């Protein structure tokens, strides 16, 4: 069965821009974020974003006449190898000339991996909040789990049903098998190529706001911080050092032509106005 592809044609003289979503998401994360769901499909993406304008670079570049496409990975929480094979086949089928790859989170690592194969004419790669050096968050799931009951008590009684479910889903995602590939010592992280083929420009973007999930207006990472000794708190959860899932230092692609950090969390970074402006400038340069 072919992947669920969303494609909008544009100016054939412009490169095709392929957007790659991260783990646990689908094509709507890029193409129709108002319809995107998170935490196992239970909640709209909006719960992670607040009142920001829910538009991203997919919308921006399409409006500028670029051909754009994305797709829903068949196993979004599965191993990276299957998603990489889908990306290779999609690019081979749709690209007729130059390609730009823009990937969020694990999607950026898939783009980096594809570029290392030298099998496509890739002009530019932009990775956004991608754990190039891995993420330590998966390690903390086992440590956080015993505090689940404490987290639930902190939640407002009037909303405890939904909020408790959200906490459980977050913990379930953190302990899932797909996330293990994102650990710094994983075979997948170690297999990432240092650089793509000559002629491919590389840009990486990181986030420094760890308030990814809010519980009664308070970041879940802040709640966790109050329960863990400071020495055990990973950079991913620290203000100014991480985006709630990836540390700012891990988001740096080694040897990238350029790297910039923005004060945004892991999901909100692609909707951040400054990030969107930066990507428009890079692509149009």
What does this molecule look like?
32% of the residues lie in helices and 17% in strands. It is α/β, with parallel strands linked by helices and 285 residues long. It has one domain (4-135, 183-210, 242-284): Rossmann fold (3-Layer(aba) Sandwich), CATH 3.40.50.1820. The strands form 3 sheets. A 7-stranded mixed beta sheet has the order 1-5-2-6-7-8-11, with helices on both faces. Helix 4 (106-115) links the parallel strand 6 and strand 7. Helix 3 crosses helix 4 (106-115). It is globular. Residues 154-160 have low confidence and may be disordered.
The total count of helices amounts to 10
Order of helices and strands: EEHEEHEHEHEHHHHEEEHEH
Number of domains: 1
Rg computed from alpha carbons, rounded to a whole number of angstroms: 18 Å
Q: Give the tally of β-strands.
A: 11
Outline the biggest β-sheet. 7 strands, mixed
CATH class: Alpha Beta
Give the distance, in angstroms, between the N- and C-terminal Cα atoms: 38 Å
- CATH architecture call: 3-Layer(aba) Sandwich
CATH superfamily: Alpha/Beta hydrolase fold, catalytic domain
Query: What general outline do the C-alpha atoms trace?
Result: globular
Order of strands in the sheet with most strands: 1-5-2-6-7-8-11
Q: What share of residues are in beta strands?
A: 15-25%
CATH topology: the name is Rossmann fold
Class per helix and strand makeup: alpha/beta
Assembly state (oligomeric): single chain
